[in-house]
Design a protein that fits this description.
globular; Rieske Iron-sulfur Protein; 9-stranded mixed beta sheet; 28% strand; 8-stranded mixed beta sheet; single chain; alpha+beta; 11 helices
């Protein structure tokens, strides 16, 4: 079994542009006997996003936003509502990045976070985090209702579950409730196996992200196929022209500029995996396991989305030990829980994680106060995108936003952050030292063009992955995910 990445898909099966979003034609993979699974996100099928022209040349604008995912589009939309023109630049197509790979939960429940936030930042800052994320759910609901967007938005509870103990869940419920969230500890749920307990957050939500994005993108000025090559102060240079702006917003998932900000040292990236199951029934709520190896569950129409298997990009012990691939693990678990179910879609996502688990949303650096960033959303990109749009709009327009403090990229350095910095620094040192070793034979030189770290081959997804900062390349060395901005170097003819 092999997995084909997007770059390979483009070559072998083509891409349907016309009006639609990178609508990948079917690639089939064996599930259980007699079944086939498409190697694409469930959101791609039936989603139509109108194609936009590239940047027509040099222009000026008050704001330029880099990245046309949900974070970038929403930021441009709310700036427009404030009377500020924002030009959005996208290297590929609208929604072609991480937005299409989400599980599309809109929730303030971000694993076991509130006890830690209170302990680390204090109750006031923790409350700002809770309030911003709870408000984001309501903002999605109002926007969808006002514009009549048919994107399957549903209010539903979100649960954390454990099969081994209740203490952490009870503490989390109490912490969340103290911050104004409707949360409670319970002992029963609808999962197909026994649990020790659950923490329930009321009135969370789920939706179809690409159908939502398609409608919102109609509200803003977007230029596709306009790859940003360089940002020089207030000038954003693309392969189609230069946009000169008063404010620059980096909403490209992972900032591709190393200095200032040093985000490459303050984040790492993880892979996570999802399979869409037919015949597994439906769940009213959304679920996330807090135990090691815990799984994620949410319904999507008549399908059940099962997720799990997260690991640092470029570091996948299962690949080395022969314990089986992540998709295989999910398939086995699905058959244990839902015998006879059929796997119809499968895909993976790339998540940026910060040192302390809180996104970086705000001014990029003290040295560039007119640069802004929205990154490090972890596994909660949908809610964090809306939070980003409101914080960045407030900062750019000069409005007060009390919730900005907890998300500030320049917030104080915590003990947890210091520990994580050492861990991630060790990966960088190891990766940089490996590039001095012989690289063996192959068509590419397996060193990441971002900072030179040695790439690791991922046989599960047939990609070269960087364990330092998470850049990914296909087997021909073509760029899949940044922060790298260029393809890998090819070996010269006759070079060993």
């Amino acid at each position: 079994m092999t997995l084909r990445l997007q770059s390979e898909w483009k070559k072998e099966i083509g891409i349907c542009y016309s009006k639609s979003i990178l609508s990948l034609q079917s690639i089939v993979m064996p599930g259980r006997e007699g079944a086939e699974a498409k190697m694409e996100s469930v959101w791609v099928k039936g989603s139509e996003i109108r194609k936009r022209d590239p940047l027509p040349g040099d222009m000026e604008a008050p704001v330029v936003v880099i990245g046309a995912g949900i974070a970038g589009i929403l930021t441009a939309y709310y700036l427009k509502k404030e009377g500020v023109r924002a030009v959005v630049l996208e290297a590929d197509r609208i929604g072609s990045g991480q937005t299409k790979n989400t599980t599309a939960k809109i929730t303030s429940q971000h694993n076991l976070i509130y006890c830690r936030l209170i302990r680390t930042f204090g109750s006031r800052m923790a409350a700002h985090y809770a309030e911003a994320n709870e408000a984001a759910i309501g903002q999605y609901e109002r926007l969808i209702r006002e514009k009549g967007i048919d994107c399957g938005f549903v209010r539903c509870p979100a649960y954390l579950y454990s099969r081994t103990g209740t203490a952490l869940l009870e503490q989390e419920a109490a912490a969340a409730e103290s911050l104004g969230i409707r949360a409670s500890f319970e002992t029963d749920c609808e999962l197909p196996f026994p649990v020790a307990g659950v923490t329930m957050f009321a009135r969370q939500a789920r939706f179809h992200p690409l159908k939502f994005l398609a409608e919102m993108a109609e509200e803003v000025e977007v230029y596709e196929q306009s790859k940003v090559l360089k940002v020089d102060d207030r000038k954003v240079e693309t392969d189609r022209g230069t946009v000169t702006a008063k404010h620059v917003v980096f909403a490209s998932h992972y900032p591709f500029i190393n200095v200032p900000g040093y985000y490459f040292a303050r984040m790492h990236q993880e892979r996570s995996y999802v399979t869409a199951l037919e015949g597994a029934g439906s769940l009213e709520g959304m679920y996330l396991g807090t135990d090691p190896g815990g799984l994620s569950f949410r319904s999507c129409g008549d399908l059940l989305l099962l997720g799990g298997g997260s690991h640092r990009t470029g570091v996948n012990p299962a690949d080395r030990t022969g314990e089986g691939c992540k998709y295989g693990m999910l398939r086995n678990r699905s058959q244990e829980m839902y015998p006879g179910c059929r796997e119809v879609y499968r895909w993976s996502a790339q998540d940026c994680l910060t040192l302390d688990g809180v996104p970086y949303i705000g001014r990029f650096s003290g040295r560039k106060p007119y640069w802004y960033v929205a990154t490090g959303f972890g596994k909660w990109g949908m809610t964090s995108s809306m939070v980003s749009a409101h914080i960045l709009t407030a900062l750019i327009t000069g409005r007060e936003c009390q919730e900005a403090d907890i998300f500030s990229p320049n917030r104080h350095f915590t003990a947890q952050a210091a520990k994580e910095l050492l861990v991630h620094g060790a990966y960088t040192v190891k990766g940089l030292s490996k590039h001095l070793l012989p690289s063996g034979k192959g068509r590419i030189i397996p060193n990441c063009p971002h900072m030179g770290c040695r790439l690791e081959w991922n046989p599960e997804e047939e990609s070269y992955d960087c364990p330092c900062h998470g850049s990914r390349f296909d087997k021909e060395g073509r760029l899949i995910d940044g922060p790298a901005q260029t393809d890998c170097k090819k070996r010269k003819e006759n070079e060993n």
